[in-house]
Each structure stands twice: as C-alpha cells, then as structure tokens.
Design a protein that fits this description.
By secondary structure, the protein is α+β, with helices and mostly antiparallel strands. It has four helices and twelve strands, in the order βαβββαβββαβαββββ. The strands form four sheets. Strands 8-10-11-12-9 form a five-stranded mixed beta sheet, covered by helices on one side. Strands 2-3-4 form a three-stranded antiparallel beta sheet. The chain has a two-stranded antiparallel sheet with strand order 1-5. Strand 6 and strand 7 form a beta hairpin.
Length: 216
Amino acid sequence: MALRRTHTIPTARRRVRTLRQHWMPRYLKSLPASASGGSKKAVEVEIYEYRLKETAGSIARFVIECSSGTYIRSLAHEMGQRLGCGAHLAEITRTAVGEFSLEQAITLEELAEAKQAGKFADYLIPLESLLSNFPRVNVLPVVERRVRHGTKFNIMLAQLQPGRVEPPPGATRELDGGEPKPPRLRVFSQQDKLIAIAEAVVPRTYQPIVVFEALP
C-alpha cells in the first residue's frame, strides 16, 4: 500500500495503527473498483486480521485476513482518506485461500518438469483431502448406491468421525464463515474414496448435495 503523500515514519505508523484498530475485527462495506466509473454496489465483508507489518517512507505493508469478496484496494483507499493523505494499492500477494497456502504452490516450470518425469500425479491434491474440517462417514455398498443416486440415507452416530479441528500449516485461521447450517459431512466408500457431500435433513438423516462420479 503506497501513501500518496509522505509522512514522517513515526507519525504515520501511530496513525496507521490507530486506523487498523478501528477496522479489525469488524464487518464493513467493501466497494469494488470500477474501471468504467459507473455505480458501485457495496458488499458486506469481514476482516479477521489487519496487521501493520512495516513502514518505509511512503510505503506501508500490511497482513490482512478477510472473507471472500473483500476488495483490498478499497481498504487502501479508505485508509488514505482517513489519514488525510490519500493512498493506493501498490502490490498484493495472496498467501492463502482457505486451507491452501502459498507454501504448497509450485511454479509452472516445476509442473512441466514433473510431467516430463512422469510425476504429474504427485502434485495433484486428491478429493479425499479436501474439506477435512467437515466430519466424515464411511458407508456400506448398499448405502453407497443410494448416495450415488442422490437419495437420502441414514447413519449411526458411531459411524461419524469428527473433522479436523486445527487448520493446516499456512492456512487461513478462518477457513469459512462458521459451521454450515444445516450441518454437512463427507461421505466415503469402503475403499476410502470420497463419493459425496451430504447435508443433514433431520438428525442422522442426510441428503447428498454434491455427488462425485466414480472413476474407472
């Protein structure tokens, strides 16, 4: 984030910290940038973390964790207005999206090399590892057939396995907006293949909402 007018660093740092405390944590309205200059519709977003990392001259660097739909350029613009100097976004790096972090990423060159070496599949994230914060259940083949046809099915509480409590290293602290309502779970076959995501209808009765096609 670049301040359009240079402040002395101590003064700017104190004022920026004060503004950061004003915004975080809270819901706020975020306005998308409009290249056409037309009307802008505000969306409600949530800021989980807004931390000043460093300042150097007219440049202030922040670490921000926010909900989907947040326009960081709008935060920079509003901060500049409140500081009375004007500000704009100079650069941005997305370090994590939910449970996926920059540490897990590889370059296109590395991916091309993996393909040439016959190791392309080593870099694919299997479906079974996704949404691991959801509880899971393994079902018998007779129930699996019902699930694959999108039919409601019942489970026993003893079958239910809790989801992951702690986020993986590098992931955002807030993986989503809270527990889904109604509750959802991951449905696995006896071969530990993810076959569906299901939503509770009544206690212990679930309705598949996403069914994954069985691979040959």
